[in-house]
Design goal:
The longest helix is centred in the middle third of the chain and has 7 residues. The chain is α+β, with helices and mostly antiparallel strands and 51 residues long. The chain has one domain. It has a two-stranded antiparallel ribbon.
Length: 51
Amino acid sequence: MKVIITVTEAIEREIWTDVMAMFGRTDDDEMWPNEEFILTEEQARRLGLLH
């Protein structure tokens, strides 16, 4: 299973810092509010998105 999360959703769920680290992004990278990141099931579980 894959889970898609946007920058805005990650910020709202307070996991944006973790998502950035998973994808090697930094504060200097340009990102759009609706930019999507595809997480594996394991990544989503680590972030608390799946139980």
